[in-house]
Amino acid sequence: MLGLLAILHAMETEVGAAIDFTRDVYPILSDRCFACHGPDAEARKADLRLDQEGFITASSSEGERLVQPGDAASSTLIARIHSEDPDSVMPPPESFLTLNPDEKATLSQWINEGASWGKHWAFERVVAPKIPQMDGVPPASHPIDSFIEKTLSLKGLSTREEASKARLRRRVHVVGAIVLHLHPRPPAPPRAPGEEHDERHDAHVEEAEQLGDA
């Protein structure tokens, strides 16, 4: 279940969800900034921490704020990551770390949206993402299909027509043949006449379960 929620959460990001600190911002700070501005007091530079909210939003002795919630243009963090001065840009050149344009845009968007903070994902409550609904499109048979259809629509694509039950059963048997090749089992009992045309919506599911129980 946790894995499924993680997949849905990732797909929610792709279809244009608002910036989430834990999902979108924390990995950037952790990978690019914590080496010099993280929890390791021995390696920390300028007595600056980017792993704690209080340090990020506090004003410096000069009155500057690393992050000004709601105003990326006034935030020192944004100025430093966009600087072309090697003595000012962050991360510094000698760290061999860089931020790509998408990461810079993510940080700017995060600040403009209020710079909300969060904890590491392992300490956050698991919340199921909102299932997207598309205008003029009937609800999908499974929640995952809703995320797939939404993502495809943003790319100008669409799903193919649902496969027939006969095709689904053939797919089940292809997988079954591979499994039986790797783990030989007794052959399944012969099917009754007409079963190959069984169009019940769960007929292929029954066959998959039979293969699993063989």
Would you spell out the secondary-structure blueprint of this structure?
Blueprint: H1 2-14, H2 21-32, H3 34-37, H4 53-57, H5 76-82, H6 101-112, H7 143-154, H8 165-182, H9 203-213
Q: Look at the helices and sheets and give the structural class.
A: mainly alpha
Low-confidence sequence ranges: 1-15
Number of strands: 0
The termini sit apart by 26 Å
Tell me, briefly, the overall form: elongated
Mean pLDDT reading? 78
Radius of gyration computed on alpha carbons: 26 Å
Order of helices and strands: HHHHHHHHH
Write up what this structure looks like.
The chain is mainly alpha-helical and 214 residues long. 44% of the residues lie in helices and 0% in strands. It contains nine helices and no strands. It is elongated and about 70 Å long. The protein starts with a helix and ends with a helix.
